Each structure stands twice: as C-alpha cells, then as structure tokens.
Prior knowledge:
Layout: E1 30-33, E2 42-43, H1 59-62, E3 67-68, H2 90-98, E4 107-109, H3 126-145, E5 151-156, H4 158-168, H5 172-178, E6 179-185, H6 196-200, H7 202-206, H8 211-219, H9 224-228, H10 233-236, E7 242-243, E8 248-249, H11 254-260, H12 265-280, E9 289-295, E10 299-304, E11 315-319, H13 327-338, E12 346-352, H14 363-376
Parallel strand pairs: 1-4, 1-5, 5-6, 6-9, 7-10, 9-12
Antiparallel strand pairs: 2-3, 7-8, 10-11
Helix pairs in contact: 2-14, 11-12
InterPro entries: AB_hydrolase_fold (IPR029058), LACT/PDAT_acylTrfase (IPR003386)
Protein name: Lecithin-cholesterol acyltransferase-like 1
Keywords: Signal
Amino acid sequence: MAFQRLLPLVALLCLFVAPPSSAVPSLHPVVLVPGNTCSQLEARLTDEYEPPPATGCGVPRQGRGWFRLWENFTELQEDPTLLIRNVCMEGLVEALERVGYREGENLFGAPYDFRHAPAAPGLASRAFSGFSSRLRLLVERASQRNGNKPVVLVTHSLGGLFATVFLDRTPLRWRRRYVKHLVMLCLGAGDSPLNMWPLASKALASSPTSLQAAVLTCGNRSFASMFSLMPSPRVYGRTPLVITRDRNYSAHDMPEFLAAAGFSEDEVARYRTRALPVTLSLRAPLVPMTAMNGVGVPTVDKLVFWDGNFSGRPQLVNGDGDGQINLETVLALQRLVGADPDQPYFKTILIPNTTHKGMISDESALKRVVSEILGASS
C-alpha cells in the first residue's frame, strides 16, 4: 500500500540530512491521517481452529504463523486471479505526487491503532496520548523541513475524529502556527446508525458464520473506537434509530441499547464516561477547515429489528449519504462548526454519487480533493 510507504514517524530525524528536495517548493506540507482501512491487520490460526472438510481452505498455505489479512476477508486463501484494488490512500498519494508532492519531503502520514479511541477530557488514554505526541512532532518537523510553512492536515473517515480531538486538545497558539488548513474527508458531526449493527449482533459474535462476521462482531464489539462512532445526541436528538416492536432507541438511548445488545454494566459505563463525552464535545477546530463528503448513495438511517432479535439481519431504512456517513451528520457540521463565531473559515463540499471509499479512490473525486488541498496550500 502506498500509504504504508509513507515516512514512519521514527524516521523523522533523517529529514535534516536528506538530499535536496525534488518537491515543488511553494506547496505547504501535507500530513495524511487515514481511516481504518489503512490499518495493517494480521492474523494467525491457533490450535483451536478446526478447518472445514472442504479443500482449499488455506491452512496448509498459511501455516500457523502470522499472515497479513487481505481485502477479501471472507476467504482464508487469497485468489491469485483477483486484482487487488487498494482502498487505503494509494490513489490520493499518487494524485498528490502528480502535482509536486514527494513522500518524506512534503508529504507524510500519521498512522494509528484504530482499535483505540480518544478518552474524555481528564481521563487517561495511553494510545491516543502517544498518537497525539507523535503527530505533534511530525507536524512541527514537517513544517521545519519546508521553510516553516504550516501544514495541511488531510483526514479520511475515522482519521477525522482523531485529528479534530487532537486539535481541540492542543493550544490555540500552536494550532494557528502549525496548521494552515484541515481538509476532512468523509466524516460528519457524530457517526452513522450503521455502526450500531455490529454492536447489536451478540449472537453472531458468539458463533460467527464467516470470517467477515467474526471481524465485524467479535472484533468491533471489543474496540473502544466503536463506542466513539455511535450516533450523537446533538445530531439525532430523539429520532428513532433502532426500531423494535416493543421499543425504539434514539441517540439518547445508547446506554439502554448497549445493555439490550448484551454489553455488561462496566462496558456501558465506559461508553457513558469515556466515549459519550468525546462525542458531545465536538466543536470547531479554530483553524480553517473544509469538509468534503459524498452524497447520492443509499446510506443507513435506521435499523429495524422488529421482533427484537438483534442476532438477525435488520431491515435497513436508507437515506442519503456516501454509503456510510449519512447526510444528516454532514449538514450538522455547518451548525456545530461553521456557525461558531470563532471559526476563521469553514466550507462544506458535497460530491454527488461518491461512496465513502470512492472519495479517495475514484478519479473524479480525487481531482476535487487535490484541488481543495492545493487551494488550501495557496
């Protein structure tokens, strides 16, 4: 993956002994903060794994050591005839290179462990604190490497949450010195009801029917970041998001929903005390910001488990959005960020018929994204 080739943070000390730059000198440095599709997940088969009787399951090929998971995670053996299409940030990196950006010179990446999440202000979060320290150092040194120009932060999906919380917790003087612009792709104010589905499916988690189901349920239910991606009461209010015969659940009812989905009292308490305050504290970053989102794609607005059986497949009620982030959360950005009198600049751009992943892979969308980055760099 091209994003995985981006300069690791530990190699930043080499910046000051690098050869003369081939990058366009007028450009402001760019730091990419990816979504969770850029994470490098690996797996191994333990002694508890019992392969199915059918041949070709991949066990002899993979053995018992660690191996990289591929995009098609419903299979245990990669199909060699398939062309792997990178949905990380390869397309965006290549598009930026065509206009003069160079990895390690004025183009950098800030990876993180997507399983973790920012904690509420005042609460410890070792993973996020480490990410924040590394990102701050990266931004400062990228600026120094490029004539002390402030950087353009470009985020995708979950990376936008990490970046906005990071900015909110850094001194305003630092933000205005080192961050020229925030370009946030594919994220609204609060996340989608779609994320409530894997959290609901406890039965699938205990007995997954496929590797995909195991990833979506066993994995996501245990990730702190999933609680941070729950719908925000500030956006959805009392609107029903999960509908059953006996009762409905709105964004205000997330603790009750989690309890009904089988989470323990301790897990529900962690949502209340660690994740919900982060969701409710979203505010303007007080640096120039452009939000770009796709629309025109059916996107989940509500989940219907009519019989109350969360282990089954829900009926999906769709609205507008990019297939993952719905339009309501995008429009809420104008109210929660754009309307802040202290926000120096805010613009929202809606790109028709563009999916969540298409924003960083489709040629037409990439042209718009690169154009905005260049505009922010001017």
